[in-house]
Amino acid sequence: MNSAARIEAFLEMMSAERGAAENTLSSYRRDLEDASQQIGGGLAAAAAADIRAYLDDIAARGFAPTSQARKLSAIRQFFKFLYTEGLRGDDPTGTLDSPKKGRPLPKTMSEADTGRLLDRAALEAADEGHGERLAALRLHALVEVLYATGLRVSELVGLPVTVAQRDDRFFMVRGKGDKERMVPLSGKARTAMRAWLAARKTGPAFADSPFLFPAAGGSGYLSRQVFARDLKGLAARAGISAAKISPHVLRHAFASHLLQNGADLRAVQQLLGHADISTTQIYTHVLEERLVRLVNDHHPLAD
Hints:
This protein has 14 helices and two strands. The chain is mainly α. It has a two-stranded antiparallel ribbon. A hairpin with a 5-residue loop joins β1 and β2. 30% of the residues are buried.
């Protein structure tokens, strides 16, 4: 069975019947010719074991799981074409599992860097000679509340002012799916919030706003982009690389630091507002590190 001719026929079909773009066709050609060469020039006649060996080989060569999955997808479509056209009586890819892509670990911050960021925000908010003290008080409240609660940035900036007027020990937040959850505030977050609420009354357009963090834009509240920009500026002034910080990174820091210090994964799931525990399980690497440390520190036979 002439594999090169079969590959050409497959590419012609992809072009004529499915209108595949030139880049797509080139990618298919590279992947199929590489597989055919590695299998010994006989991709069209390959058995499932041959293809499995090829996939093991590209994994050993260091190809990323996404690249492995792309190559397998091209091979699957090639054999589906051969089977449909009657050029093979079976499809050897039917029993092959796709490579596990995995989920990238979230970027986070160390507890030390987080402490430096919060200390800098508190220092600027306490400086009565600060040229933009109102903005400094707002930023201090934002970062303290974000790190204390792990709110999504969209939830944080859009909070109604009423959440802070009920009971300052916690916020009731309406998140994704219109679901409400309770998030407790730390002592430092409560202090920063009280200072902001007092200052907020002095803002010319702020006092009557229904939002906790009002702004002049169309939405009526501080935009995520402005908060992210201000947060990066704060990080730079605290001696932390601005590239390492974003509101989402602080949310991840909240979750990671809780787990590192003994929190239960289910409790963190509720605080983050994740509907499914599988979403929170991106943090299981933190739990694994904690368990290893626990065994190393406390097991009687650990070295």
